[in-house]
Amino acid sequence: MIKIPQTLIEELLKRKFFDKGTADELVQKAKEADRDFTQTVVESGLISDSDLVSLKSELYRLPSVAITDDKIKSDALKTIPESTAEFYKFVPFDREENILRIGVLNPEDNDALEALKFIAQDQGLSIEKYIIDFEDYSRVLKKYRTLVGEVKEALDELSQELGKEDIKKAPISQLPQISEQAPIIKAVAVTIKHAVETRASDIHIEPQEKEIRVRFRTDGEMHVSLILPKTIHSAIVTRIKILSDLKIDETRVPQDGRFGTVVGDKKIDFRVSTLPTRYGEKIVLRILDPTVGLVDLPVLGLAGRNLGLIEKYIEKPFGSILITGPTGSGKTTTLYAILRKINSEDVNIITLEDPIEILLPGINQSQIQEEIGYTFASGLRSILRQDPDIIMVGEIRDADTANLATHASLTGHLVFSTLHTNDSIGVIPRLIDLGVEKYLIAPTLNLAMAQRLLRRLCPSCKIKTKPDMAETKIIKEAIDTMPEEVGRKLPKSFDVYKASDAGCDECKGKAYKGRVAIFEVFEINDGVEKVILSGISESALSEEAKKQGMLSMFQDGILKVLEGMVSLEELLEVAEVGNA
Ligand SMILES: [Zn+2]
After folding, report:
1. Distance, CA 192 to ligand 1 centroid (Å)?
2. Which residues form the domain of 459?
């Protein structure tokens, strides 16, 4: 039961932050939600968190403190269990010898004070109390819940249930049956929760000779998140197979499945794939978080001419827009953002995908199943009979699909798809390779785009520097070859930004936060059509690209370097991969 701070309320009334009626309402609200009163007041917008902290500090004659992540000491956390901290709304954050520093939300809560007194006596500690705001209180609570800590807790429980000293020594044969036991279910759930909270895109569960390694991929980079005892491998695998309707006893061939679950307040889908390896089945969970992929075009990194061209051509009733780039370059995210933008009640949008990564309300999404003959090509034939206005085909990788897509765009449909080529201009020779008639390309293809993903520098801790000579040369060269109207607007002297060594709270020590794409948007205009009809030379196409004012991906990247969005090192690394 929540304790209401009467003295504080009187003070707030006296200072006219609200009247008696509002105070009663807030008290009622706090009680109903079983939430700290001050949190309720701050959420109502009547007083800011920081003003409230200074007012409380004055009123209760206690110092206030801001608790950043690096101030939270784990030996302080160990002195008070998480459940106690959550119940009494105070958190230990620092410990020096026998001094324990505690952040409190409500110093009028006598039960909480009694509990603190008891802890102090019991452990021979002297306690210093500080006023903290609600955000910092939550920050400390979160620290209790590390992935390693929570999984260990589950496994300790399992050891107890099995009556074993140590889970690592349990006989393997006994363990597949425990996959439905609470601790295994919890270990899997906790791992999934942490992966989603840290915005990972994939979870890899990898059996090795003596242990299981769990790695998360976040912003494109893999890192080890957890090491588990090998003995529970089959239980973990079985648990995931049960969730995703896979054959439990089939361990010799790869399987694919999916399942959905609620994490926090979001429904999230997972695509599961298993692979037999030397030390057992490896599992990869692709996290299909519906909110992660759904961003607007400018957030993806589209601006200026690039954004303008897309906005122009998605208004057209027919023709196609093709996006190219290697796997993991963000093509699907761009397509989803476009579809979301043009989705409305009065158009029929049908997609063919492999896999469906994000569910889009109001759009008819269909999952390809190659093994039963439902391919991009056969699917495309079927959906054309479904009276579509707009069609999205996951990928064009064979002649059949290429020709069907071409004819669909010729006959009054707006078609979106992806291809594998190095750059935007490469789309044209690739279509010819796939057997599309030369004379059909310009009338059907509106835009050929290429993209790559770069890690976005954390805005809170990125470091501003002057570029060195070599860097200046690279940037200057890129600017000099840009279309005049873009290059002209750029400053003559510039700063660049680097990733910080240690990161900060904001980016959880990674120095990067999310990703941004660099783009190249090639418009298939009359000039390009002439080149296509007269025999397609790559140099003539490049010439046309220049004439229409196209920025190369690298030049678009340089603009993002100058804006401080990405580092030059990152751009050079990705651009090099692109050129290889
Ligand atoms: Zn940072």
Report:
1. 24
2. 297-579
